[in-house]
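Researcher: Structure prediction, please.
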Amino acid sequence: ALTNAARHGGARSARVAVADYPAFWQVTVDNDGIVPAEGEPAVDGRGGSGLGLRSMTERVEALGGRVRITPRPRFTVFATIPKDGQGKEGAS
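Model: Predicted structure follows.
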């Protein structure tokens, strides 16, 4: 998320927050960089989003987590990652 902010968004500032809960972590990264124009393809980690966003989403989902990306007011990547370590590959 930080690499994308600097490389693609031209961000001058970014914030990272990590919250530790009993069953999961929440990671939020936001930045003040350029956001996609209104009406561009969804930036939800799928479809028309960039390779970096897709890759981030795939890695978090492989751990059993979820990613939400919101472009406004600040471009924000919000991930929830379970601590149990039972991603899609480990689930039975």
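Model: The chain has one domain: 2-82.
Researcher: Thanks, that helps.
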